[in-house]
């Protein structure tokens, strides 16, 4: 290990002074906004001072520079001191901090990437470590660069299980370029944390998770300098700096007291600021400069215009599961662009993401059965446009990571999610494995795109399009084999449906997706024998839905529409269609979907039992033409 050289006394004193300036900035900003968390800022003032003015290497001219160190404030409610650190470093005027939480200011109550120095939104606690793990993994194994990742975690949020999923991941992959800082200030929002200041308990736990665990006085600048040096010098594992701190540190009559969480200091502010000003030895301009990256060693990359290396190659009528086509397409786009990566939660041989793993093992990240961490790692891996991340697991398992996905949208992430084993059509595995809420969940995400391809050709094109689409993308894939119905050269567009069966005599429009498209086609063929002609539409994307196409085709069918989906009725394809037609006159819609708790059974039996088979579609058509 390199030899540690203690900073000069002048530097130590200036770092102490900066910590107090950051406290004052946090008080002033929260006073101006009449809201915020100044006591939570005070506990990390020395940590922020040492990180931003002694340890982290970054460019003020390019806060998201690819070669710079990364910092994630997992305890996002301490945003004022993060903003203060960047302001005091010179990124923007300190006076701008007085705009905290104003409607026309991007200095929001919790950090978001509306600010050019923020990578991800935080504040929904327990998620920052996963994001940091994704950044660190990419830095170590894909960029192979020397930038480091720091994440600051509150002791209260360390009760979240997602934190420990991420710590396990970091320890398993020996992410020696990751430093997790625990702000152990003893107090939560409404009472003391469960462990309070039991520092040895924290140390033992983190040691057991494979970390170089260092306990420090979080208000001792010199101890912090030494700990961060040791972290940077540790080559065989990640480091956890467990800082014993006090909420409201150096706030007279407030420090370490309950009932001050999330409150500006009010009438006490002036006295506290006066006290802090007396602690500052050098009130003049800051003279220590933030360290800069030593070298630009993160490679220049391009993640634009990603294409399938070879076009789809299927025979019409060939039976191929869309989950298998996903794996095939994933390997093809990975062949085209070396920044395409795949992540999975120990389902890779079912989702077929293992096709990328077999072709490019260095670009596959196994996250094991820890879906919250899986999603967070992907969000971190995609930051600063370093990778194009595809995350796969059973569709239903994404529900436990909904908060991470929601925060991904706030973080302006471009991660692609692929959920297989959707609906009752998976069969005997039963309801715990059936994705029946996933479309509703992903439709609710702001700016999301929801693909629901029916065959192998459309699936490959969905993967190609998702790789080039901004925002959260979700591709819903199915377990059963389905017939290839599209020519290999068929062109697809986001938000444009495909008419797969039509005639001049159509009297009912049938809309199905995935396996139910085929049930609709079967029903149409049967009904045709009795002289009832139906048009059949494949929406391709559920969001955005082709509203114009549905209205136009529906009107040509007399305004009679039947929608059938392998999903709960709430929030899925049917309700998307109903929303599209809500302001249209002279339409009637029959909606078939799973409307009660399913059970185990053969796929075809279940599809019929829950009213989404061709038989049920045909019955709905018979009913609607009589209305």
Automatic annotation (TrEMBL):
The keyword Magnesium applies. CDD domains: TPP_PYR_DXS_TK_like (cd07033), TPP_TK (cd02012). Its cofactor is Ca(2+); Mg(2+); Mn(2+); Co(2+). SUPFAM superfamilies: Thiamin diphosphate-binding fold (THDP-binding), TK C-terminal domain-like. It is an enzyme of class 2 (transferase). Keywords: Calcium, Magnesium, Metal-binding, Thiamine pyrophosphate, Transferase. Its EC number is 2.2.1.1. SMART domains: Transket_pyr. It holds the Pfam family Transket_pyr. Residues 320-484 form the Transketolase-like pyrimidine-binding domain. GO terms for cellular component: cytoplasm. GO terms for molecular function: metal ion binding; thiamine pyrophosphate binding; transketolase activity. Coiled coil: none annotated. Signal peptide: none annotated. It comes from the Eukaryota. Belongs to the transketolase family. NCBIfam families: PRK05899.2-5 (NF004559). Homodimer. This is transketolase.
């Amino acid at each position: 290990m390199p030899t540690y050289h203690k900073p000069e006394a002048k530097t130590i004193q200036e770092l102490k002074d900066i910590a107090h300036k950051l406290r004052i900035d946090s008080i002033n900003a929260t006073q101006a906004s009449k809201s915020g968390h100044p006591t939570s800022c005070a506990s990390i003032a020395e940590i922020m001072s040492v990180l931003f003015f002694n340890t982290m290497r970054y460019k003020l001219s390019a806060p998201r520079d690819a070669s710079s160190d990364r910092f994630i404030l997992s305890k996002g409610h301490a945003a004022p001191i993060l903003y203060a650190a960047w302001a005091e470093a010179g990124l923007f005027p300190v006076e701008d901090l007085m705009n905290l939480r104003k409607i026309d200011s991007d200095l929001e109550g919790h950090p978001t990437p509306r600010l050019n120095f923020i990578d991800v939104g935080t504040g929904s606690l327990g998620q920052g470590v996963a994001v940091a793990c994704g950044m660190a993994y990419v830095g170590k194994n894909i960029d192979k660069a020397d930038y480091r990742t720091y994440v600051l975690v509150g002791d209260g949020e360390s009760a979240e299980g997602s934190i420990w999923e991420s710590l396990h991941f970091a320890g398993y992959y020996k992410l020696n370029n990751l430093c997790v800082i625990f702000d152990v200030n003893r107090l939560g929002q409404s009472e003391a944390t469960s462990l309070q200041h039991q520092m040895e308990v924290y140390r033992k736990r983190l040691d057991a998770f494979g970390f170089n665990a260092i306990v420090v006085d979080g208000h001792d600048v010199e101890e912090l300098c030494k700990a961060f040096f040791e972290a940077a010098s540790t080559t065989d594992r990640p480091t956890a700096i467990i800082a014993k701190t006090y909420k409201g540190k150096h706030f007279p009559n407030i420090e370490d007291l309950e009932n001050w969480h999330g409150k500006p200091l009010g009438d006490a502010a002036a006295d506290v600021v006066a006290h802090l000003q007396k602690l500052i030895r050098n009130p003049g301009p800051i003279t220590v400069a933030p360290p800069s990256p030593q070298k630009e060693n993160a490679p220049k990359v391009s993640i634009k215009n990603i294409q399938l290396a070879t076009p789809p190659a299927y025979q019409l009528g060939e039976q191929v599961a869309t989950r298998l086509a996903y794996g095939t397409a994933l390997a093809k786009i990975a062949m085209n662009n070396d920044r395409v990566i795949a992540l999975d939660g120990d389902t890779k041989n079912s989702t077929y993401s293992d096709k990328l793993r077999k072709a490019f093992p260095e670009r596959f990240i196994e996250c094991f059965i820890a879906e919250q961490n899986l999603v967070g790692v992907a969000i971190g891996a995609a930051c600063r446009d370093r990778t194009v991340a595809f995350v796969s697991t059973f569709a239903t398992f994404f529900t436990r990571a909904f908060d991470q996905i929601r925060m991904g949208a706030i973080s302006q992430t471009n991660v692609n999610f692929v959920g297989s084993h959707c609906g009752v059509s998976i069969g005997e595995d039963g309801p715990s494995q059936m994705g029946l809420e996933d479309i509703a969940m992903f439709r609710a995400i702001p700016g999301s795109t929801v693909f629901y391809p029916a065959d192998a050709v459309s699936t490959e094109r969905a993967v190609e399009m998702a790789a080039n689409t901004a925002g959260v993308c979700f591709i819903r894939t199915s377990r059963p084999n389905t017939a290839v119905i599209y020519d290999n050269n068929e062109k697809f567009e986001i938000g444009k449906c495909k008419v797969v069966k039509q005639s001049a005599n159509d009297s009912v429009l049938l809309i199905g997706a995935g396996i139910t498209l085929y049930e609709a086609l079967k029903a149409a063929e049967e009904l045709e024998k009795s002289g009832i002609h139906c048009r059949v539409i494949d929406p391709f994307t559920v969001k955005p839905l082709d509203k114009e196409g549905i209205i136009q085709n529906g009107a040509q069918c007399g305004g009679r529409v039947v929608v059938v989906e392998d999903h709960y009725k709430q929030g899925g394809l049917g309700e998307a269609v109903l929303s599209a037609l809500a302001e249209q006159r002279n339409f009637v819609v029959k909606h078939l979907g799973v409307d009660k708790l399913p059970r185990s059974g053969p796929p075809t039996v279940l599809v019929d039992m829950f009213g989404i088979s061709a038989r049920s579609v045909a019955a709905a058509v018979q009913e609607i033409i009589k209305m």
